[in-house]
Automatic annotation (TrEMBL):
Glutaredoxin domain segment(s): 14-72
Coiled coil: none
GO cellular component, one term: cytoplasm
SUPFAM superfamilies to which the protein is assigned, alphabetical: Thioredoxin-like (SSF52833)
Location in the cell: Cytoplasm
Protein name (Swiss-Prot/TrEMBL): Glutaredoxin domain-containing protein
Key words of the record: Cytoplasm, Redox-active center
Organism encoding this protein: Tagetes erecta (African marigold)
Protein family membership: Belongs to the glutaredoxin family. CC-type subfamily.
Length: 99
């Protein structure tokens, strides 16, 4: 879990993903469309990382999205934040985007 926390705190926006996950691709595209350049960690062959994400409360484990070092959720949560307008504000506050 310390490795996840460490990686999540190194960038303003971090997405843990699997290459075969279509929702992971969609969330990455959303962040790019908003002007963010998140750190992407593909964890296809890292069962320990998946276990650590689940222990931190990431369920489903992918995509696991962190903004400003805090877990904001998976795809459903991120989309909800985007629809209600708070995702962009979180990205601005974390300095992942500038407006």
């Amino acid at each position: 879990m310390d490795r996840v926390r460490d990686l999540a705190s190194k960038s303003a926006a971090v997405i843990f993903t699997k290459s075969t996950c279509c929702m992971c691709h969609s969330i990455k595209a959303l962040f790019y469309d908003l002007g963010a350049s998140p750190a992407i960690y593909e964890v296809d062959h890292d069962a320990d990382m998946e276990w650590a994400l689940r222990r931190l409360g990431c369920n489903p484990a992918f995509p696991a999205v962190f903004v400003g070092g805090k877990y904001i959720g998976s795809a459903k949560d991120v989309i909800s934040l985007h629809v209600d307008g708070t995702l962009k504000q979180k990205l601005i506050e974390a300095r992942a985007i500038w407006f």
